[in-house]
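Onboarding guide, step 5: your first structure request.
Type a short instruction followed by the sequence, for example:

Predict the 3D structure of this protein.
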Amino acid sequence: MGRKFELHKEVELAATPQQVWDAISTGPGLEAWFMSQPAPEEGACEVWQPGEHLSVTTPAAPDGSFHAFEYLIEARDGGSTVLRFVHSGFLSDDWGAEFEAMTARGWDMYLHTLALYLQHFTGRPAVYITAEGPEVTAKPEAWEVLLRGLGLDHNPALGERVHLTPEGLPAIDGEVDWFEGEEAPFLAVRTEDALYRFHGRAPLGMTIAVGHHFYYPAEQPATDEAWRVWLHGLYPAQG
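The system replies with structure tokens like these:
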């Protein structure tokens, strides 16, 4: 039968409405906190009100499923902005009960990254770096291997300064801005010129992935490949 769903999020951002609009409606803006993807186009959106309101719906799939994304931007006194976000749509029977919880958590992570980008890196061009591990990393025990590969011998605390040493890649010195272990692993580290994100996706039956945002010139294909090689090198028998 399928079912409807609707997720609501709200976040206060240290930015102007125009800066928030640029982050959600342009290709360079999306790459700075979300991922590389085509930007929404005015003619393809249900609502296009720069600095205020954006609403876009994906085309329906053959099974009737679709997704709608709505952003409401409101200026606040003191120069901050509140972003209200709604992700709604229709799911096919292929999606289980875990969809809403996992998707809501994913948006919490992305909106957290948006807040950090606007606070620390607003307007700086970004390069989005992404790579996935081998199939074995879809198992929960793979997360501990990842942490050891980064040079961590413990679960870091929020706000902790860390020195990460992925073999064959530049060392990473920064502050932990998000950490979760156990059931839904996620490690996020902010440095002076980047936001590093390590996603443990075993609860979804998916491999470990990285999705970093570099706010300095970087060769994207080569850097993507370097992180892929590193991930696979952590699990040599399976990678």
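Each response can be followed by summary notes, for example: The chain has two domains: 3-120, 127-233.
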